[in-house]
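Propose amino acids for all 311 sites.
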């Protein structure tokens, strides 16, 4: 979600405890099972070297260039995404990455990079899944997340700390229209298929089609309460994600099953580190699957957008 997340809680994740890889699931208030906070494996030492340990609230998180091996891995991950497909198929690829699931060819290329760096652990699924997150407690920016901005000529003003749900949606749209795997920086014609804007508000009146019959692949747009009627394009806070299905409950209330970028998790505190509680918001935002209603936090649904190549 698009929120301010850096609270300068120094070193909450600078830990070396062995944790299971499987996600923890929590029961949401609406009775729908929602993702909770993942439990992570040990961080590789090189990754821990970038951990935030200063209490300085003015520290610019997520803007330090990561090691070259991480940049090389990110290039393989971006080029491994589907193309000439639906935009949501691209989103599904990155959601699978978050689960440590990748095509064999992508894994093989990353193993070559890890072998050359003499760091075989960098090719393990338990580490590669971090590339589907922004690196919440790390001064390095995640080059995959920053790549979502750069692909469409957008500037991530605070590295991977910049809210990135719209950048992710635009990258998926552009990537779905190219015809070669090595194209991860898009030309102006391809960029024009999306909004060429990093604000979720840019999707509020995007395209010529809004639909009252949302289907898999459409984009659902939420707006910050009080800004729903703001003229488009809007830079108002909100959220945008791809619809996987719509669930209709009592009173004809809709819940949207979505896959999108910069999405957090709901759930209780599941870990205590040195007496400090680690909450879902202390971990990271990620490409994830969520169930979201017409309202969440201070946001309300604006519209569902579709295009002919979305479905």
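Proposal:
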């Amino acid at each position: 979600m698009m929120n301010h997340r850096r609270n300068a809680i120094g070193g909450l994740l600078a830990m070396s405890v062995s944790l299971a890889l499987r996600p923890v699931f929590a029961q949401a208030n609406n009775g729908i099972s929602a993702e909770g906070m993942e439990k992570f494996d040990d961080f590789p030492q090189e990754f821990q070297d970038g951990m935030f340990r200063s209490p300085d609230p003015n520290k610019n998180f997520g803007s330090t260039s990561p090691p070259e091996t991480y940049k090389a891995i990110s290039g393989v991950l971006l080029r491994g995404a589907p193309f000439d497909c639906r935009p949501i198929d691209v989103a599904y690829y990155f959601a699978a990455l978050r689960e440590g699931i990748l095509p064999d060819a992508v894994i093989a290329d990353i193993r070559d990079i890890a072998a050359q760096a003499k760091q075989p652990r960098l090719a393990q699924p338990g580490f590669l899944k971090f590339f589907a997150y922004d690196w919440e407690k790390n001064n390095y920016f995640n080059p995959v997340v920053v790549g979502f901005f750069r692909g469409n000529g957008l500037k991530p003003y605070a590295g991977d700390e910049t809210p990135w749900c719209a950048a992710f949606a635009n990258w998926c749209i552009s990537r779905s229209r190219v015809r070669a795997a090595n194209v991860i920086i898009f030309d102006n014609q391809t960029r024009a298929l999306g909004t060429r804007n990093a604000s979720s508000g840019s999707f509020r009146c995007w395209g010529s089609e809004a639909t009252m019959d949302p289907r898999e692949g459409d984009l659902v747009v939420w707006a910050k309460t009080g800004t729903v009627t703001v003229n488009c394009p809007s830079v108002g806070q909100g959220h945008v994600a791809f619809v996987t299905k719509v669930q209709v409950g009592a009173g004809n209330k809709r819940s949207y099953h979505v896959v999108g970028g910069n999405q957090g998790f709901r759930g209780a505190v599941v870990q205590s580190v040195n007496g400090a509680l680690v909450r879902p918001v202390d971990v990271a935002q990620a490409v994830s699957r969520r169930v979201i209603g017409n309202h969440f936090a201070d946001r309300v649904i604006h519209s569902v957008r579709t295009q002919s190549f979305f479905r």
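The mean pLDDT is 75. The CA atoms of residues 154 and 198 lie 7 Å apart.
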